[in-house]
Amino acid sequence: PDRNGKIFYTSITSLSHISKRGGHLVTGFLGTPYFCAALSENDCLKQAYDLLLKKDFPGWLYQVAQGATTVWEHWDGRRPDGTMWSAGMNSFNHYAYGAVGAWLYSTVLGLGQQAGTAGFAAARLAPRPGGGLNWAEGWHETPLGRYALRWEKDAVKTNVTFSVPANAEAELVLEPGAQIIASDGIAFTNGTARVGSGTYIVQYTK
Question: Does 140 lie in the same domain as 84?
Fold first, then answer.
C-alpha cells in the first residue's frame, strides 16, 4: 500500500502507541506481525529496530534474556523470579510473536521475490542494516536453488555479499544514501543494479 493506504495509517498509529508505552509493543497476536513492517516501510527503520531489540518486557529480547531459544506464547511466559504467566496455558514454542521473522527476512536481510514473477526466478534483494547490529546473514531455498545474502558493517563501510542461483536473476537495492566504494563489476543506477547468477560483493559507505 502507498502512503495513503493501510500500512501508512498503521505506522502512524504504531508510533503513537509505542511512544505512550515507553517504546514497547502494545498488541496481541494479530497486530504484532505488522508493527516492524509498518514502521520500516514508512521511513521509520530506526524505530522498527529499536522495537525488535528491546531487552525489557514486553519484547523479543526479554524472552532471550530469560533463556528462551524459541518464541513464547506470552511475553512473560517465564519471569525473572522463575514464576510462570500460567501453568495451564503457556506454550514455550508458539509462532504468533515469531511472525517478526518475516520482517527479519524481508527487511533486515531484504530477501524477497520481484513483483510480477513466480517461483523466485527473479529476486529483489534490499538489505537494510541498522539497529547497531554488525552483521546479518540468511538464505532462501527456491526451485532454482539458494539465494543467500550477508551484510557486515562497521563505523565506516558496509559490505554486502550475495549469491544468485543458476538460471535466475536479482535486483539489488542498496539503502538510501549509499555511496558505492566497490561494486564487483556491477553497474548501479541510483543505488540499484540487476545481476544474473553468481556470487558478488558490494561495498559502500553512508
Answer: no
Cα Rg of the chain (Å, integer): 19
**Same-domain status, 36 and 72:** yes
Q: Are residues 118 and 201 in the same domain?
A: yes
pTM of the model: 0.87
CA–CA dist 56, 91 (Å, integer) = 20
Residue 3: is its pLDDT beyond 50?
Answer: no
Q: Are residue 81 and residue 127 in the same domain, yes or no?
A: no
DSSP state at residue 79: -
Q: Which of 146, 151, 148 is nearest to 127 (CA)?
A: 151
- According to DSSP, residue 141 is labeled E
pLDDT grade for 188, boundaries at 50, 70 and 90:
very high
Residues 6+ apart with CB under 8 A from 74: 85, 86, 90
Q: 29-68: per-residue pLDDT in tens?
A: 888 888 899 889 888 899 999 999 999 999 999 999 999 9
Kindly state whether residue 19 falls inside one of the protein's structural domains: yes
Question: What is the total count of domains within the chain?
Answer: 2
Same domain, 189 and 129: yes
Enumerate the H helices of the chain as residue ranges. 6-20, 32-40, 45-52, 60-65, 100-103
